[in-house]
Amino acid sequence: MSPHNASPRPLIASLLGLACSLGALLDRLQPLAALLARLYVAQVFFLSGLTKLRDWETTLFLFTEEYKVPVLSPPVAAFMGTAGELVLPVLLAAGLLGRLGALGLTAVNVVAVVSLSEIAPAALQQHILWGALLVGVALYGPGRWSIDHLMARGQKV
Predict the structure, then answer these.
(1) Whole-prediction pTM value?
(2) Has residue 11 been placed in a domain?
């Protein structure tokens, strides 16, 4: 049999086998990836909340002069933003009500971008990255290494 008449089936079977092996490896990495995404985004927002809390007068000034949060008064926006940045990351990091935490931080993230009159391209890219990671957690859940997963396992009938 000449090489020109060889069937492509062995090559396709090899590629499918490789794809299945790669998929199995990536499946095993999902809990770690979800945890790292949750911890990374949680840290970013939690540290931002701590910064606001440490210098409340500056925070109020920024919410009055720099951040133009629609609908809310500056003091209410400052309180809600700071509270969201301190509470929601803890939920997200622990994977306790992980989807709720991710959706809440998505809202904080969107309001942060919308409320700034000008945002540097690099800062916008960071917000987009955080938003993508948060949407991933909201859509797929916080993963197997989360309190949500442990609680769901305990409720199986």
Answers:
(1) 0.85
(2) no
* 64 within a domain of the structure (yes/no): yes
What is the tally of structural domains in the chain? 1
C-alpha–C-alpha distance, residues 103 and 131, integer Å: 10
Coil/strand/helix, residue 157: coil
Residue 117: inside a domain = yes
Domain that holds residue 56: 31-154
User: Residues 6 or more apart from 95 whose CB is under 8 A from it?
Assistant: 35, 38, 142, 143, 145, 146, 147, 148, 149
pLDDT tens column, 56-86:
999 999 999 999 898 999 999 999 999 999 9
d(CA 126, CA 22): 29
DSSP string, 75-135: HHHHHHHHHHHHHHHHHHHHTSSHHHHHHHHHHHHHHHHHHBS---HHHHHHHHHHHHHHH
Q: Is residue 69 part of a domain?
A: yes
Compute φ and ψ for 97, nearest 5 degrees: 55, 45
Q: Are 78 and 60 in contact (CB under 8 A)?
A: yes
